[in-house]
Description:
This protein has helices spanning 17-35, 74-89, 112-118, 148-166, 208-225, 261-264, 285-302, 337-351, 357-363, 397-404, and strands at 5-12, 40-48, 51-59, 92-93, 96-97, 102-109, 132-139, 172-185, 188-201, 236-239, 255-256, 308-315, 324-328. It has 405 residues and is α+β, with helices and mostly antiparallel strands. The radius of gyration is 22 Å and the shape is flat.
Amino acid sequence: MRSDYLFTSESVSEGHPDKVADQISDAVVDLFLGIDPEARIACETLTTTQLVVLAGEIRGNGIMDEAGNWAPGIPEKVEAAVRETVKRIGYEQDGFHWETLRFENNLHPQSAHIAQGVDAGENKEEGAGDQGIMFGFACDETPDLMPATLDYSHKILARMAEDRHSGAAPFLEPDAKSQVTLRFEGGKPVAATAIVVSTQHAKGYDQGEQEAELKAYVKKVVADVLPAELIGDETVYHINPTGSFEIGGPDGDAGLTGRKIIVDTYGGAAPHGGGAFSGKDPTKVDRSAAYVARYLAKNLVAAGLATRCTIQLAYAIGVSEPLSLYVDTHGTGTVSDDKLEQAIWSVAQARLGGLTPRGIRTGLSLNKPIYSPSAAYGHFGRKAEGDLFPWEKTDIAGALKTAAA
C-alpha cells in the first residue's frame, strides 16, 4: 500500500436525478414490505422531464397475484408513494413537479423460474436471489469507520439539504454534487487539497452579490463539516465551476435506479461487485450480502483487529450458502486474515444464523420497510437508530475479538 497520495470521492444530493430514482424505488420497496414482509421486489425507476416510469418484477400477498392482478387500492398507493417522495425531496419546478408529473407503472409478476430457485422448499433452504460478488469495507479514517473523502462529501450535501428544507438557505434547489480530495501522509488524511460543490440554485445566484453569497455559504458548510486541521492554504474551492445551474434534477438529466453505486458504497476506496441496492428486497444478495459484509468489516475494525478491512462474499442464484468468504486487512490486521475468516464464520453462525440469505435477513432484521432513508447520502457510515441501518451496529465486535484470539 502507498502511504502518501491524493485521493478523491464524490457524492450527489437527494435531488440528483439518479438519486431521485433510487429513492422512488426504495419507497416502493418500503410500501410492499409494509404489506408483506416476505414480498419479492425488483423495482427500477426512470425519471426525466415531468415523467416517472416504474418497471420490474414483484410478488407478494396483498400486492399482486401470479396473473398480474393488483390487490385493491395498491396501484393508488404506489403512485401516492412516488409523488410523496418527489415532494419530500422538494421538486415543485416547471420541469419536474410532484403534483403534475406523468406517472407510469409497469411492474409485473416475478418470473416463476426465479421463484422456484429462491423459495425454500421441503428439502431445500432458501436460495440467493441472484449470483454475484459483494464487498464490505471499513477503515479508521473517520468516527463512522468510513473513507474520509466520501464521508465528508456526503456530509457537505446532507448539511446543504437540511438548510434548504429548513429555509436557512432558500437560494438552494434540490440537485447538487460534491467532491473532496484529501492528501494522505502515512496513510492518514492530513489536508484537503480540493473541494468541488455544484448546486442547483435560484435565479440570479450565478452573478454579482448573490453569487458571492452562495459561494460564501458553501465555504461555511465545508468549514463546519471538515475537521479544521484539514482546511488551509492548499485548499482550492471549485463552487459551481460551470457558472449557472438553474435547470437541474430530472429536467436537466434523465435519472435511473442504480447508477450511483460507488456513491452508495465507499467512494472508490474499496472494490464493488457491480450490483445496485435500491429497489430490491433483502432476498437479493446484491443488497443484503453487501450490508452484512459492511457489518462484518466494520465490527472487525471496531474491535481493533484491523485499521482497514475489505471483505468479499460470493453467491450463486438458488444456492443458500456463500461460495466464498475473503478477508483482506491490507497489512493492518492484528491476527492473520485466514484466522479472521474463521472467526467470521463462527460468529456469523452464532449471532446471525449464518451467511445464507435468510440468516442475513433475520439476523439483521432486514424484512422491514427501512430502506428509503438509505437511498441518499450513502448506505454506509450512517447512525444505526431503531430499526434503521442495523448493518451499522458494532454489537459483534467483542465476539469477533474473542473468536480471533
